[in-house]
Amino acid sequence: MQLSKEYFQKHKFAFEVLALLCYFSINATINTTTVLMEEAREVNRSFQLWEPFVWEFSSAFATLLLFPLIAWFMRNKPWNWLTIKTSIAGYLLAAILYGMLHIALMVTMREFVYLFTESDYQFSNGMQQLLFEFLYELRKDIWSFCFLVAIIAIYRYLIAQWLGDAQPISNNSGIEDNVSTTESLANILLVKKLGKEFLIKTKNIEWVEACGNYVNLHIDNQIYPMRITMTEFMLKSRNYGLVRVHKSSAVNLNWVHFIEPLSSGDGEIVMQSGTKVRLSRRYKVDFETLIAAQVQLN
Fold it and tell me: Diameter of the chain by CA atoms?
């Protein structure tokens, strides 16, 4: 069964959580078995069999809890090659902060688990060893932060290339970095997809559909995803004849062919392309009012 883009968009968060759980669980298991196999070479084992599982999985779950913060940081403070010194300083500071939080979470988890055992967990004995252990873990965490940043950047690039990523082109200042920074959509949108760039006119959008964290723009039987909420999109597209007809869809009045009432009280909008879009009772009155106003203007 082929994974459709629409299905992936709707369940993108679930796919990402599952992938992260699988990766960190497998990585922690491999690290645990490595510790056990190395210790098997010794005549006398210095720890109990369950302890490496606690050590490695506490580290993995601490990383998993901090992963959304890394993604959030990268989205709000994207790397900028034009201000490379500022970017290096910002990401280095973030890496150190990540390392400190990771160590704190990891040690807290271990201490909690050891409360239910007869064993005693000690991160260090004395201030000198505490500093050594802290620097030892921080060194690894900074490198781990760099690795995770690279993975997130590559993942976002590949997803944008696969799904397509529509961005507005400002009439005055070129390509906008973020659609949410503009008061309204520009006349032309730039779509980067599979290594190519497409220019589409906003007025040619036939209908739009909310799909997870995206809004899919339907134009000439093609789908162009834009990372924006449906509510925000409607606020920015009000000048292009787009009207919301359902909590997850809107249509362009200029592309409506006819409306067919349904026995449930809802309606079905048939577009000029033949596409059928559900008209919810919640939006039916407002939609019909706008249609009537459009007719009077014409």
Answer: 92
pLDDT score for 230? 87
Conformational region of residue 210, where left means phi above 0, alpha means psi within -120 to 50, and beta covers everything else: beta
Which secondary structure element, helix H or strand E, spans residue 250, and what is its range? strand 249-252
- Report if pTM > 0.70: no
243 class by beta-carbon count within 10 Å (0-12 exposed, 13-18 middle, 19+ buried): buried
Residues linked to residue 250 through DSSP beta bridges, in sequence order? 208, 244
Amino acid at 139: R
Alpha-carbon distance of 113 to 176, in angstroms, equals 49
Q: Where are any strands of DSSP class E within the chain?
A: 165-170, 174-175, 188-193, 196-201, 207-211, 214-219, 222-226, 242-246, 249-252, 256-261, 267-271, 276-279
Average pLDDT over residues 183-206: 78
Give the Cα separation of 105 and 115 in Å (integer).
Answer: 16
Q: How far is CA 182 from CA 73, 141, 177, in A?
A: 21, 37, 10
Identify residue 8 by its one-letter amino acid code.
F
Residue 174: pLDDT band with limits 50, 70, 90:
very low
Find the angle CA(275)-CA(279)-CA(281) to the nearest 5 degrees: 170
CA distance 76 to 90: 12
Report the C-alpha gap between 231 and 242 in whole angstroms: 12
Level-2 CATH architecture, domain 165-297: Beta Barrel (2.40)
Which residue do the tokens 């490595």 mark?
34
Question: Helix or strand or coil: residue 248?
Answer: coil
Domain boundaries, the chain: 5-163, 165-297
Residue 173 DSSP one-character state: T
Does the pLDDT of residue 177 top 50, yes or no?
Answer: no
